[in-house]
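Closing statement on the AHG sub-project.
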Amino acid sequence: MAINRKVQTLDEFTLQQLRDFPQATGELSNLLRDIGLAAKRINVEVNKAGLVDILGDYGTTNVQGEEVKKLDIFANNQMMGVLQHGVSCAGIGSEEMDEFVVFNDEISNKSKYVCLFDPLDGSSNIDVNVSIGTIFSVYRRVSELGKPATEADFLQPGNKQVAAGYVVYGSSTMLVYATRRGVNGFTLDPSIGEFTLSHPDIKCPPNGKLYSVNHGNFFKYEEPVKAYITACQKKDKTNGGPYTQRYIASMVADVHRNLIKGGIFMYPGTSDRPEGKLRLLYECNPFAFIMEVAGGKASNGKQRVLDIVPTKLHQRTPFFVGSIEMMQELETYLKPE
Ligand code: AHG
């Protein structure tokens, strides 16, 4: 049987990228491959979620008498496990854990990177078989190599990200990651168990017709946000419309769709939650980085998301991200002259 060499796996791709940088140590490639491995394991469990639910296993014990973990805890443990046992990560911060974790062993202390992640975003959608995802972000340490990572490594602004990505567990499973060189998407081929390059060099269309926001919160948004949403509803053929509202409350799927098709995603602050819902380090920074590399834009309504200097691990921020021209139009509402 002829082997199709046109298919490039995630591992081959990251190795090939390395060849262009003879001085590179390969640590980042290792780390991305580790995340790919965790994603495959999480994918297997996500695909079984309906079955497990029918059997009523979650939160109970299995036949071996072991406690069956909830899917988000399982995903967290997979991400942490591969990174802890790999050779490229000095510590992690996770949306699922109160504090960051420093691995503090001989190999990890020599590792250049730390990783922040939301192991399973949109997990309230699991029960109803809607797409969910994993989001990750990689930073080069600022603390001294050879010593344990410190809090300063985790509290860096998003503009210091070295790489960021996400996995969407949808009608197919895709891993998309960005470095400063570009954004590339890999679709999991279940027949060989490999992520294969399917969306090389993704660019977000400069304009689109999709807007994504929770309309249920409309009356809690600030007036400029309401005015922009109303303008989206009023778009017609004469001014670039009509627009269509698309929002499934799974940010990974919502932003992925808008990245590919062109669109804008918003999670503004509300009167009862001025900082919004989304976390700067685990959700907003990675998507802001990916979108900017792809040619789009991200803001908190007042400034570039990537320039926010975080003060705490689980900090939240209003978030607007998407096609550059749509973001520019939004800004005319948020910053009226
Ligand atoms: P969770 O992981 O708790 O389901 O949260 C999902 C996040 C994000 O993915 C999504 O865009 C947003 O919360 C949806 O929030 P609303 O339901 O408030 O619109």
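DSSP finds nine helices and 13 strands in the chain. With this model delivered, the sub-project is considered complete and its resources will be redirected to Aim 3.
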